[in-house]
Design brief:
This protein is about 10% helix and about 50% strand. The protein contains 1 helix and 9 strands, in the order E-E-E-E-E-E-E-E-E-H. It has a 9-stranded mixed β-sheet with strand order 1-4-5-6-7-8-9-2-3, with helices on one face. The two termini are about 30 Å apart.
């Protein structure tokens, strides 16, 4: 995991297996679930960003999303986390909703990114992220 974190970055939360993740950025929408031995979705919350990683076959990387906090974004083309909330849906249960703005994007992606992460630790995640985001000065949001 050390290779994921940048120098000086502190891990605040790690969830090895999110049940289901849905990614929306018009015109695309993707969904993936954790299937033991085949595919897993990992979630990390640091003092700089939220990292969502998908891997297959015990750890072969498939995809990674980095949602940076405004004051921590290392470059102008990063996705910046703007809001977090929670909800519930009938098929998946409780979810954490992450809303981010893409500073630069291509034709198959809008300037907003929404992630829905279905997990049993929604309240803990919301509290952790609200603490980190509350530490930002208002002019950075």
């Amino acid at each position: 995991m050390k290779d994921i974190l940048r120098e000086g970055e502190k891990l605040l939360y790690h969830h090895k297996r999110v049940g289901l993740a849905v990614y929306k950025s018009a015109p695309t929408i993707h969904a993936a679930g954790s299937v033991p031995g085949l595919h897993h979705i990992e979630l990390l919350v640091t003092d700089r960003r939220v990292i969502i990683r998908g891997a297959i076959l015990g750890g072969v990387p498939l995809t990674e999303f980095d949602l940076w906090y405004a004051q921590q974004a290392p470059s102008a083309d990063c996705d910046v986390l703007e809001r977090v909330s929670t909800g519930a849906s009938r098929p998946g249960g409780k979810y954490l909703h992450l809303f981010a703005r893409a500073r630069e994007h291509g034709p198959l992606r809008s300037d907003t990114v929404e992630m829905y992460l279905y997990t049993d630790e929604v309240e803990l995640l919301l509290d952790t992220l609200n603490l980190v985001l509350a530490a930002e000065p208002m002019e950075w949001r």
